[in-house]
Amino acid sequence: MTAAPTAAAPRHSRIIDLLRGAPILGPVAALILACIFFATQTDRFLSGANFSLILQQVMVVGTLAIGQELVILTGGIDLSNGMIMALSSVLTTGLIANSGVHPFLAVVLGLAVCVAFGVLNGWLTTAIGLPPFIVTLGTFNIAYALVRIYTTATITSVPDSLLFFGNTFSIGSTEITYGSILMLVLFAIAWLVLGSTRAGRSVYAVGDNPEAARLAGIRTSRVLVGVYAMAALSYGIAGLLLVARTGVGDPQAGQTGNLDSITAVVLGGTSLLGGRGQIMGALVGALIVGVFRNGLQLMGVGSIYQVLITGILVILAVSVDYLSHRAK
Amino acid sequence: MTATTATPQGKVLLEMKDIGKSFPDVKALQGVSLSVREGEVLALLGENGAGKSTLIKILSGAYTKDEGEIFFEGQPVTIRSPQDAQDLGISTIYQESNLAKDLTVAENIFLGRLPAKGLLVDWETVRKKSREILDRLGATISVDAIVSTLSVAEQQLVEISKSLNRKTRILIMDEPSAVLGESDLERLFQVVRSLQAEGIGIIYISHRMREIFELADEVTVLKDGRFVGTRRVADVTMDELVRLIIGRDLEDVFPRREVVPGEVLLEVKNLRRARLVHDVSFQLRAGEILGFAGITGSGRTEVVRAIFGADAHGGEMRISGKPYRASSPTEAIRRGIALVNEDRKAHGLFLKLDVTVNTTIAALKGLCRAGFIQRAKEKALVQKLIQDLRIKTPGASSIVLNMSGGNQQKVIISRWLAIDTRILIMDEPTRGIDVGSKSEIYQIMNELTKRGVGIIMISSELPEVLGMSDRILVMREGTIVGELARADASEEAIMKRAVGGDLAQGAAARA
């Protein structure tokens, strides 16, 4: 019958317009403001070495956030990512240390297992139609159990070749970790794929309206399975970065990886409803968390307060996002 | 078919005078009046979008009116909320069931008003009174049955019982027959008549003419949100009534159709879908506009969705003589078939994404080189389509959510013009679109047929069907019941086939 007409757009501020047009501007502004704030609070903040340190500190969660961003863009959520990361790091180091597998082969096997987990996530979501929250809650536990069944002891004898991404190179006097460069390269690849390929467009289309996507000829199941698989690949790589940074294969790792990566994605302005958000937002989001942790630490604030402030940040960021969209 | 013999004697219960209602960009109702007497059945008629729903929502308190007055038993009243409506004794039975499916019949009838005996619910009274109400309606269902185990018709009886358990003076029934099969109709009629006998005034909405003549005392017709007229059913023929509903003279919005249809593009044989479509066969020629007429629920949308591969189905199809298996929309698109959906927001648009993405989503394969979308080429294509279709938008990177219905529809059409579409299926192509854009969409359709595109158009607007189609197929209850050449088609001819042959005879006898 008479289609319920959309409410007329009342006047709203240009700032809201701008934020909606380029949702990444808000997070970038927040990041810059945070940097300015900490620069005024402590003179140790503003240095190449400190920024390099921040990058190194966020490289694992940042890489996890790449996969999480992909999944959230499709309107899903991935709770299993930290455990898939732990599986990759433990399995790869364990295969080398305990079974004498060649490091290269061990890396490939570790990543393959991760991708298999991703395919499982995607398959359960599409073929059976389970909500991603439930599916990945299940695989979170399964992966956790598999890690602990495989080993409960930290694997300490890690070959040098696996530590490469923890090494640094110098630009001037600043030491930069190879791993943080890898993270940036991965972000660049994801950005290119999402923005400039058919597959990337399909991710947004499926996230915005899955039925319309199907009726526009997109094979939505393939897109979703592909997204979960690629996301899991990024978790696998995050696992390798974790090994490179800590020097061990830790079966206790990754338990908060899901929430940390969701935090980065949300701070980066991505809608949990799917279809809206930018991959670089996840990088900015991860950096915001990194800058706050680092800055507060330099100011001598205890780590539990850093967590407190991260929590407040998330709620603030999402409130701004919701309010700007409600003013439609 | 005996028209009810009641004479207009009961006292007037409800009167609505010059009701107006506007939404930000639509005037939904203007100067609409109606009145209902005790024990009278008033049929409210009009095409989709005529304003019936808006009027009902005003009566039931879901919307508030902007203009006009409402009188109840001669006293002016204001209805600002569903509670106000209920206090006056106005109940509404919507098409969608509002029952708690996991509770029993009796619990539903007393939902929210369970009587207490001390601290406990007085189940004895609940069951006894529920039984009484059901008996009044001649319903034999058990008061202890769980609602979800009942048939749709039985659930409807529970719904009616629920409103009877409150004070009900006026009962609004929004297409109560739409969900019922033929066999359940008679029972519904009996129920309506018994309510009538109790002095309840009934506002009855239906698209089925037969019911109107069987049940109603008076009809009030709306069109485009305006009041067309009220007639005694005894004084009106079906042809007259159809004319009242369809209304206005054909404005000069339709382009001249000069294309001579060419070779057969699409051949459909014995298309079937369980319970929805039975053995539908037809052909579509190049350059032809084939109109599908019929009432809502007659199976038209189900037919075209099957052709587009959107739903599972049986039957055989050929495109230009070559076998075609509609296994998925992807396959349909690959073979040159496109579907403009009835509900563009739910099934067509990516509302939060921009014009470019919406337009080129099906065309990306041709725009990619080495796996990457060639931006310049994409931009040029989108610009050309924006110009060709006269899409009004600030730019290709604007979000489609904020565009008008007409422009959104053009974006969807542009999606299919961005690729090599040879068979374009349009389901209600101009629903909810202003007259200006409508005319532009007709022009586009005309242009496409000149290029040899075959168009299947489903439309519930008869002027549109008549104005645009070269040939018209009429569907009823999942089958094609008539084919009309453009020259032989008239609104009456279509409507008679769409609502049923027996009715056509009855109406002829009446006239």
Task: List the main descriptive attributes of the protein structure presented here.
heterodimer; A: 328 residues; mainly alpha; ABC transporter involved in vitamin B12 uptake, BtuC; disordered N terminus; B: 511 residues; alpha/beta; Rossmann fold; 3 domains; 6-stranded mixed sheet; 19 helices; elongated
The CATH architecture of chain A can be named as Orthogonal Bundle
Radius of gyration of chain A: 20 Å
CATH superfamily of the largest domain in chain B: P-loop containing nucleotide triphosphate hydrolases
Radius of gyration of chain B: 25 Å
What's the main sheet of chain A like? 2 strands, antiparallel
Strand content of chain A: under 5%
Q: Which overall shape of chain A is indicated by the principal axes computed on the Cα atoms?
A: globular
Helicity of chain B, in percent?
25-40%
Strand content of chain B: 25-35%
Q: List the uncertain runs of chain A.
A: 1-12
CATH fold naming of chain A: ABC transporter involved in vitamin B12 uptake, BtuC
Describe the strand arrangement of the main beta sheet of chain B, using strand numbers: 6-9-10-3-11-12
Summing up helix and strand content along with how strands pair, one would put the structural category of chain B as alpha/beta
Low-confidence stretches of chain B: 1-6, 502-511
Q: Structural class of the secondary structure composition of chain A? A: mainly alpha
Work out the helix count of chain A.
14
Order of H and E elements of chain A: HHHHHHHEEHHHHHHH
